[in-house]
Amino acid sequence: MVFSTSGLGEEALESFNRFGYDPATSEIPSILLLGPKHHGWKPRAQTAKHRVTVSTPIKLRELRELLDELVPRELVKTSVDH
């Protein structure tokens, strides 16, 4: 799941944190994209090994590499096959 503060502002940060607390979604890899005006919010984000923050702007290649790190290959294959 990708959340972006550029469009949603603080609501994206709050949603990212709620997503991490909810037992139904807490294990889903997620990224919080922090817009240039929001880099200072990073300490407020509840991160984990599979829940990270990234400052924007970010290159698409960098985002793809990050997704490859966060999402296990077997999950990607399963999702595509079905």
Classify the secondary structure makeup into a structural class: alpha/beta
Global geometry: globular
Radius of gyration: 13 Å
User: What is the overall number of helices?
Assistant: 4
Could you spell the SSE succession in H and E letters? Answer: EHHEEHH
Largest sheet: 3 strands, parallel
Low-confidence stretches: none
Cα end-to-end separation: 19 Å
Taking all residues together, what is the mean pLDDT? 91
Share of residues in helices: 40-55%
Strand percent estimate: 15-25%
Number of strands: 3
Strand arrangement in the largest pleated sheet: 1-2-3
In brief:
Helix content is 44%, strand content 16%. The protein has helices at 5-8, 10-21, 60-70, 73-81; strands spanning 2-4, 30-34, 51-55.
Write the layout of secondary structure elements.
Layout: E1 2-4, H1 5-8, H2 10-21, E2 30-34, E3 51-55, H3 60-70, H4 73-81
Parallel strand pairs: 1-2, 2-3
